[in-house]
Every structure is written in C-alpha cells, then in structure tokens.
C-alpha cells in the first residue's frame, strides 16, 4: 500500500500515533480492530522507513526475562496466523534460532533461561555442539561448549508486516499521513492537546509515541523522559550461492554477536560493532565486514571468504537496560509510549499492539506491563537486564 502524502492532516483526531513503523502500524491495527475511530498515524517518511526497514527480522521467544519471553511468544503466534489476521503473506520462515555458546558461564545462564522459557511454553532446549553442526553445517565446533535451540523461532519480512497491518488499519478508517514530520506537541495542564506537523496541526485526545530511535525527541516535546539512544547496526548479503545454501537456523555466535541466516538466494551476515558510537548515521560502511570475517574464520570458516553483494545499515533504539519502554506517562496521562525495543521491536510488535490497545482502552493487558514503564529509570526501581541481546 503506498499511502500518498497528505497536503493537510485532519484538523482533529481521537488518537495520533507518531511513527509509521512496525510498532505504529501494529498499534493502529489493534486499535481500529477494537472499534476505536478517528486515528491518525503520522510518519515523517514512507511507512517502515526507520528501524523497521531492515530486510529480514528475526522472530523469537528465547529471552532471559519473563516479560520478553511472553511478548516474543505471543507475537510468534500472531505472526503464524498473520495470513488470516490481518491477512498478508509476511514470508515467515520457521527455521529456529541457534545460540552458540563458548563458555561454562554462558552455558549455565542459557540453561536457566531455557528452563524459564519451557515453563512459559517455549520449546527451546540445550544441545551439544555436534547437533548444532548438524543443524548448521557451516559451523566449526572448535571451542564450542553447547548451544541453545528453539525450533519455533525464525524470521520474516518487516516491510510486509508493516504493509499488512497498515493496509488493514486503513481499510478500517485509519488515516495514514506519510511524509509528515512532527515538529511539536501542545500541552494544557496534564494533557497533550495538539500535535504540530509539517502539514498542519491536529487537535487530539491521545498521543501514542511509537517513533523508534526518534522517541526521545518526541518525548521531549511533551516533557516526558524516554531514554532511547540510536545506535547503527549493519548487515551484508552474500552474492547468490551455487549450489544454494542449506536451510539453516538463524545462527548467532553469542560471544561476538556475529549472526547469519538464509536470505533469498544467499545468506545474510550481521554483527554488532562494539565500538559503534550512538547517533542517527545510517551510512553503510563495508569495512565493518572485516569484523564479521574475523569471527567467521574461527566459527564458520566457509563464510569468511564469501563474496558479498552490498549491505544495509539501520538503527537500533537502545535503552539503558536493553528493555522496551511501554506504558502511560504519569505526568501526562494521555501520552502513551512504546519505544526503545533495543533490537527486539519487530519480534514483539504484534503483542505490543495488543498491549497498547488495552492501555488506551484502560483494561488489563494479557500480562502486567508496569515493569517496562519509563519511570523505572528515575524511581530507583530495579532495571530489568536482558541477557539475550544481539
């Protein structure tokens, strides 16, 4: 669905959602499905042009934090049913996720996480290095202690998810204003009462911030602290492989964060550069590939010399404890937010859409979301470290 840019936005709305990525689209769909009307989604570029623009997104429920397991698991089920609701092919490939572990400490941490995941219905298990190699023939088992594997995980196409949710939302009457930039928010007392955009002002009853890496800026406009930092992440594609690559799990070398999986007629390769500075720069710099190749020489030697055919850079939206910010502002009760997913937004988007719908309708979500309130950082509350971060 290509939504044309509005010359003007509607003069008023019940709900303005800032951000037209996977989170904003999911929230719009779930609100509209529940009968909420007069919703406007404001997106400064095309739909999904921010962090959701990545070509392939992993979907998993293998986490160490129970809330993240629940959000991932519920979203996995929604992605499995996406062809029926809202009704779109998102090229979901349930190949599993394989975490490669090279120390006793990692292994004991993942063993505890697998027990927790199993208690919440996730079919993950610990496996020996030899079984990991059977699942992913590229691996060298040298130095591997164990691996964690869940066959229910996999990957899908974020762009198709955004379009699927947005098309269904638009069909239910949601206005989608692309190429429309938010420049300010009006508040009166403890309410947000208006959103200023490059195509006019929208008087509103509720604002939902789903602006990804840009969420801190939107929060500042309302005087709400949303501690989200943008960090560049890069990936590359191999040239087409002959013979074709075997079908492998989404494979992650946990110590280095190097990962790889199938992509069309080749492989996708990625790694988080530990020296990457915060910022909004999304220039793809092929030099980072040497970091990946260095790891590959040890862990998956056949990948180290593969020819690449371009790549891509996008933004993670990172919070201090690598967990999302989901909730309602204490200072401005009609300002809601879903941001800071630290690389896990796509895989949690369906469940978070449900949660935001319920928060808006003032009913209890499927699980208690209060631990993910942005207030946790300034009330001295215990933050929630998530160990399974890539």
UniProtKB/TrEMBL annotation:
EC main group: oxidoreductase
Keyword Amino-acid biosynthesis: no
Entry EC number(s): 1.-.-.-
Record's keyword terms, sorted: Oxidoreductase
Residue ranges of domain FAD dependent oxidoreductase in the record: 14-359
Pfam families: DAO (PF01266)
GO molecular function terms listed in the Swiss-Prot or TrEMBL record: oxidoreductase activity
Top-rank lineage group of the source organism: Bacteria
UniProt protein name: FAD-binding oxidoreductase
């Amino acid at each position: 669905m290509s939504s044309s840019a509005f010359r003007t936005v509607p003069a008023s709305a019940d709900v303005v959602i800032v951000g037209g990525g996977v989170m904003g689209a999911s929230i719009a769909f779930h609100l509209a499905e529940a009968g909420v009307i007069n919703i406007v989604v404001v997106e400064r570029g095309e739909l999904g042009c921010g962090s959701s623009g990545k070509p392939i997104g992993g979907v998993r429920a293998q986490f160490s934090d129970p809330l993240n397991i629940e959000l991932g698991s519920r979203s996995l089920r929604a992605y499995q049913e996406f062809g029926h609701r809202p009704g779109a092919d998102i090229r979901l490939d349930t190949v599993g996720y394989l975490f490669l572990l090279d120390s006793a400490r990692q292994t004991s941490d993942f063993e505890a996480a697998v027990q927790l995941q199993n208690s919440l219905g996730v079919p993950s298990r610990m496996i020996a290095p030899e079984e990991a190699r059977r699942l992913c023939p590229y691996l060298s088992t040298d130095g591997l202690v164990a691996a964690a594997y869940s066959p229910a995980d996999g990957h899908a196409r974020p762009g198709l998810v955004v379009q699927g949710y947005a098309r269904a939302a638009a069909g239910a009457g949601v206005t989608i204003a692309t190429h429309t930039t938010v420049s300010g928010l009006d508040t009166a007392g403890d309410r947000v009462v208006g959103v200023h955009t490059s195509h006019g002002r929208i008087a509103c009853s509720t604002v939902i911030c789903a602006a990804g890496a840009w969420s801190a800026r939107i929060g500042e406009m309302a005087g709400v602290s949303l501690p989200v930092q943008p960090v560049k992440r890069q990936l590359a594609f191999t040239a087409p492989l002959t013979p074709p690559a075997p079908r492998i799990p989404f494979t992650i070398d946990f110590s280095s964060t190097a990962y790889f999986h199938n992509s069309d007629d080749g492989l996708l390769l990625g790694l988080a550069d530990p020296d990457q500075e915060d910022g909004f720069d999304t220039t793809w710099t092929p030099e980072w590939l040497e970091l990946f190749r260095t790891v590959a020489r040890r862990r998956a030697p056949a990948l180290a010399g593969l020819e690449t055919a371009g790549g891509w850079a996008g933004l993670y939206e990172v919070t201090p404890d690598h967990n999302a910010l989901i909730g309602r502002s204490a200072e401005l009760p009609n300002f809601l937010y879903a941001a800071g997913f630290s690389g896990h937004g796509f895989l949690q988007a369906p469940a978070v859409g449900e949660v935001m719908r319920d928060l808006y309708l003032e009913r209890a979500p499927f699980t208690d979301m209060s631990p993910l309130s942005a207030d946790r950082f300034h009330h001295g509350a215990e933050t929630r470290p998530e160990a399974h971060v890539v």
